[in-house]
Specification:
This protein is mainly α and about 190 residues long. The chain is about 60% helix and about 5% strand. A two-stranded antiparallel sheet has the order 1-2. The longest helix has 17 residues. About 30% of the residues are buried.
Amino acid sequence: HDGIAIERYRGAVTTMPAKNSITQSVAEHVSVFLTTKLPGQYVYHTIDRTKEVVRACEEIGQAVALKPPDMQTVVLAAWFLHAGLVETESAETGQSANMAAEFLRAKRYSAEGIKKVVECIQGVASRNPQNLLEEVLCDAENLHLAKKKYFEKSDLLRVEMESVSGKSMGNIEWMQSRVHALNTQPFRTAY
């Protein structure tokens, strides 16, 4: 991996940018935040899921030839995408975007950069991306749908959804919800 160093955090291997950068600061902050604050009912939207989305952003971003500043934008958005689950039952309600803006502002990140990161997160939330950066993040969030381990990971999502909602889903209801997800979450980039 270009420019990626493997570090150990609480016994788990994490990917972190090799140089000291805003991306590294965000990665470290969100890793610690999710590892220490995420409620136990979240067995799918964990730090591992966040890292999976970050890696997917890098993979898709390279495939569509994102320039380094744009790649940084989607990667920063990916790190914060599920952080809002710590404070609300739906990261897509805007809490993740607020957390990203607050952290980046405190790090003196540019106002334009913050706006782009927030818009990427909101593009995933609305399921209506407006530009290539938002499309990359949406596709990264959905890339697991095309992976071999989809059904295994889907089981974790089911456990999480049932735990958060307090309601069990029958097998048919669950499978129908997964078919619906597959049919309604199209990939948007050429990747």
